[in-house]
Structure formats: structure tokens, C-alpha cells
Amino acid sequence: MKVRHFFVNLAAMLVRILIVLVLVSFIYKLGFKAYDFGYRVFAEEAMSSEPGRDIEVTIPMGSSAMDIGEILENSGLIKDKTLFFVQERLSEYHGKLSPGTYTLNTSQTAQDMMEIMAEDEESSTEEAEDRDK
Question: What's the total number of domains in the chain?
Fold first, then answer.
């Protein structure tokens, strides 16, 4: 009876240890992925080095940042549309990306592309301000 009780307790302890190891492993992997994603938000490199390859993309009217990210990802200009969405949300260009046709390059970062796609809006705002003077 005591031997059986000992083995039951030993088995229960081994199961608890296994559960803890699985949880620690899961938390470690999740933390590593979160750190990697966070790092890439601010340090994502371009798809290729200079001179890169020019690609023409068209951003339709009413496109969200996620839609634009999907267009850029499908065109081979960025690696991850979700990362682009987060970069856009945290950038000075949030909500300023304009529809239109753009020639972008694979050697540009997402930040560079956002600057180009927001330029039209900034130009039109400056032109409107100049007319109002």
C-alpha cells in the first residue's frame, strides 16, 4: 500500500514538473516572438539592398493601412503586412497615406514607402494653405 502511494505521488509530481516545463517553454517562445516583432517594428530592413527593383503599386481609394500592407506584401515590397500596419499606426504618417499609383523600390524601408505615399496629401495641404493666404 505504501509503495503504491509512493508511485502515485511520484507520478503526480512528474506530471506537475512536465506541465511547468511546457509552460516555461511556451512563455519563452512567446516572449522571444514578441521581442522579435517589437524589434522589427522599429528596425525592419528593406527587402533588398541598393539599387533594388522598382515596382509600381496602386492604392485604391478607401484602403486601410492593413489593405495597403497586403498590397505591398503581395508586390514583394515588404515581408509582413501586420508589421506594416503596426509601423503605420506608430508613425507620423498614421492616417495620412493617400490613394494613388506609386513607384516604390525593394530597397526602401516601410518608413520610406509611407513617406512617399503621404507626400501627396502633404503637398495638397500645403497648396491649399498657400491659396488661402
Answer: 2
